[in-house]
């Protein structure tokens, strides 16, 4: 009987990349002062014996780094491994343990490039496992629960933090000291409670199976950089980024991706030189940048990132530029993804 139940469980692979969920501090009181990326995947899985009731879980250490240092090469390496596993008949779902600082970028990247409807769930923690009230165990348990469920299929890359199921496209780290750090301007897709998922809405944007991007055809990612803006901003950073070879610059603008009059001429000139200018917003709760509002984008031949924050706009721009350098095509992609 037990063997039969074992067989019915889904097969879930946990790909570990490091982060605070693999962090360790000097004492249980250290919830904010600790070293990330210390604990190996076998120990993480062994720390949550209840996982074995949810799925047949095995782990793989893909890398062991704090996520602020994830490079484009790391993204490609992880993306390729996810694709290989998604292609395996004996894998039903994939969980990725990840630092929270760039978790939203990796989740969105995978959401764009993985051609699978199998659940891919990215998860991290705000406190290291050594701290009192560590959140990693429950977040990992919830991630495996979602990854092993049939209902999670076809919903794009997901993020489980703080009992919520978020869309990897929408979610962003909004605060760095609370366990309720991950929010989406458009709300979570569902909740996961005691190993069971409760769904409330679906992502509307193109992702995974319905995406025109495929990790298997992406050899490298082009250089896309971000310039942070404010009223008195100078054009030094924009010019330097273009000179160092950036194919696109994400303007992390004020409000509606607005551009200080001090740098408008430089951005127009850079576009004439071939650099794509993509207007995003650094407002805290989520920007909403509209074309030809604040700036004449048609005349300038600029692109707007709409609701994508600067770091997510950078991810889409890199992936999109592997296909096209046409600003109209880029703008289409920014509406669709
Ligand atoms: N909470 C965390 O995971 C933060 C850590 N710096 C990381 O992103 O790896």
Automatic annotation (TrEMBL):
The active site is at residues 20, 100. InterPro entries: AsnASE_II, Asp/glu_Ase-like_sf, Asparaginase/glutaminase-like, Asparaginase/glutaminase_AS1, Asparaginase/glutaminase_AS2, Asparaginase_C, L-asparaginase_C, L-asparaginase_N. The keyword Hydrolase applies. Residues 223-334 form the Asparaginase/glutaminase C-terminal domain. GO terms for molecular function: asparaginase activity; glutamin-(asparagin-)ase activity. Residues 11-199 form the L-asparaginase N-terminal domain. CDD domains: L-asparaginase_like. One of its GO terms (biological process) is asparagine metabolic process. Gene3D superfamilies: 3.40.50.40, L-asparaginase, N-terminal domain. Keywords: Hydrolase, Signal. Its EC number is 3.5.1.38. PROSITE patterns: ASN_GLN_ASE_1 (PS00144), ASN_GLN_ASE_2 (PS00917), ASN_GLN_ASE_3 (PS51732). Substrate binds at residues 67, 100-101. The keyword Nucleotidyltransferase does not apply. It catalyses: L-asparagine + H2O = L-aspartate + NH4(+); L-glutamine + H2O = L-glutamate + NH4(+). Belongs to the asparaginase 1 family. NCBIfam families: asnASE_II. This is Glutaminase-asparaginase. It comes from Pseudomonas prosekii.
